[in-house]
Amino acid sequence: MSSKxxxxxxxxxxxxxxxxxxxxxQVAKQAFTxxxxxxxxxxxxxxxxxxxxxxxxxxxTRDALLAAVYQTEVEKLAAAQQEFSKTMAPVEAxxxxxxxxxxxxxxxxxxxxxxxxxxxxxxxxxxxxxxxVKGAIHTLVDRAIKNGDIRPDLDPFDxxxxxxxxxxxxxxxxxxxxxxRLVEIxxxxxxxxxxx
Length: 196
Fold this sequence. Notes:
This protein is an all-alpha fold and 196 residues long. Helix content is 71%, strand content 0%.
């Protein structure tokens, strides 16, 4: 007989702890985008309706909170891809996701200066999230290609590059509207040559 002890399965966080974490992340996203990395974490806790101890239990450092806010946005993009794929026609799912990606770029653009204050920069945070974004766009484009909505020679990452390129002028107030128009142009230009 083996004397090895089995490790108990990790406990799921309590429902109230999960709600607190989500509230903290929502408030922190708004605070970081409006005020940058120097925002008071005590203010974040107060606005989220939790004590500072609760905030620090979930996010022991400012860097941990910044990274979690960014990762949460990326996870929302990945989840949206799955939801759109279930509920929309392939090309409509691609369009909806690209429009959501424009909002993600806006968030990233606003949070990026704060992320860059992290020790060693934000490259590790960006690297870990890149796979989720690339996987989402590849899935959507592949589905649209199989349905005959998109040219088979389209590189999915080219669509992202075009949208990211627009974000370089994100200091112009109307850039999100321009980026959303670009989504329509990219979808139209990605159609097969024999499509009407």
